[in-house]
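In the design runs reported in the main text, the only information available to the sequence generator was the tokenized backbone. The following block is the verbatim input for one such run; it is reproduced so that readers can re-run the procedure and compare outputs position by position.
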């Protein structure tokens, strides 16, 4: 049984990676339905949180069916991180996660996210302060290093464990790589099999099929897998992986009825939670994968990503179900190079 502190996660948990403008409550609801074991919020700026910024505070919203859930924060100022940890604790998640992996320039230029990989000593001090500021179990998500010349992830894992984190998720790329090239799981595996490490190690990067999930589980000895981009518009990946682990057989792709129902539910919840304009806009990144694999569907998807009226969007999706109800779907595999 894998545990984060006293939180039981199952024998081999599947985690939803925190993704900005993706892993919000509407999308998390779908992933939980499809078997995701642990989910994280979008990352939250500690500076926004301590200043009571609306967007930051809204990201604290969690629902009973999502548990266990982690709230993820990012920042570089010690006082702000500690104050934000206190605010997060009031929201009552099961886990507080620190983001040391975001590669986006506007984050890293402030030495937050993956930027802190340039100063490991500060990373450890900051983590120590957060651990001491909260009663919640603290976890960390990070990358291998800033670039190929600064990969110190084994040292990082040991030192962060020593200051009290309860689990570590590692994306197998450096910050310089962004999302290019292949994730290096050999370094993740080395940490998972390090006899000094006794906290769960979760691997992240390039898992886009049940076959690959099982291969990496067996090859690298991680305690669980975190899935990010391959879940966008494809929450079924969690049930597909679990079924394959259990039976060795691939599930049939979700039917067009399942796809339309999920997309409509997602859109409805998105609009309710974010408001109509933002809810419609941020839903657009998901349509490509919800309706991937059907012949000649590109013009219809184009309508979905240009229409603003919610009832019209619902009608378009109903039309998709009618058109493709009896159509065989081509094999769905989400390309790992897909950007958010």
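Verbatim output:
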């Amino acid at each position: 049984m894998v545990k984060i502190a006293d939180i039981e996660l199952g024998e081999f948990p599947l985690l939803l990676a925190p993704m900005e403008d993706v892993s919000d409550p509407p999308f998390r609801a779908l992933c939980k339905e499809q078997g995701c074991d642990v989910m994280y919020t979008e990352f939250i700026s500690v500076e926004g949180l301590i200043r009571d910024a609306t967007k930051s505070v809204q990201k604290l919203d969690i629902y009973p069916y999502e548990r266990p859930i982690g709230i993820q924060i990012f920042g570089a100022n010690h006082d702000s991180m500690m104050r934000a940890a206190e605010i997060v604790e009031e929201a009552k998640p099961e886990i507080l996660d620190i983001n040391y992996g975001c590669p986006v320039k506007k984050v890293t230029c402030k030495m937050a996210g993956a930027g802190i990989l340039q100063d490991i000593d500060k990373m450890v001090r900051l983590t120590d302060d957060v651990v001491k500021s909260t009663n919640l179990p603290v976890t960390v998500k990070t990358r291998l290093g800033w670039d190929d010349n600064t990969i110190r992830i084994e040292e990082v894992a040991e030192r962060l464990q020593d200051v009290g984190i309860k689990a570590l998720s590692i994306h197998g790329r450096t910050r310089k790589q962004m999302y290019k090239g292949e994730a290096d799981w050999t370094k993740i595996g080395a940490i998972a099999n390090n006899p000094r490490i006794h906290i769960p190690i979760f691997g992240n990067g390039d898992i886009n099929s049940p076959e690959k999930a099982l291969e990496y589980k067996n090859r690298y000895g991680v305690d669980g897998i975190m899935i990010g981009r391959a879940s966008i518009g494809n929450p079924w990946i969690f049930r597909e992986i679990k079924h394959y682990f259990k039976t060795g057989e691939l599930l049939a792709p979700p039917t067009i009825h399942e796809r339309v129902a999920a997309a409509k539910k997602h859109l409805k919840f998105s609009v309710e939670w974010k408001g109509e304009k933002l809810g419609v806009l941020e839903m657009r990144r998901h349509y490509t994968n919800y309706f991937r694999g059907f012949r000649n569907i590109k013009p219809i998807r184009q309508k979905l990503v240009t229409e603003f009226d919610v009832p019209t969007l619902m009608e378009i999706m109903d039309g998709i179900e009618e058109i493709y109800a009896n159509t065989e779907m081509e094999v769905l595999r989400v390309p790992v190079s897909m950007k958010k």
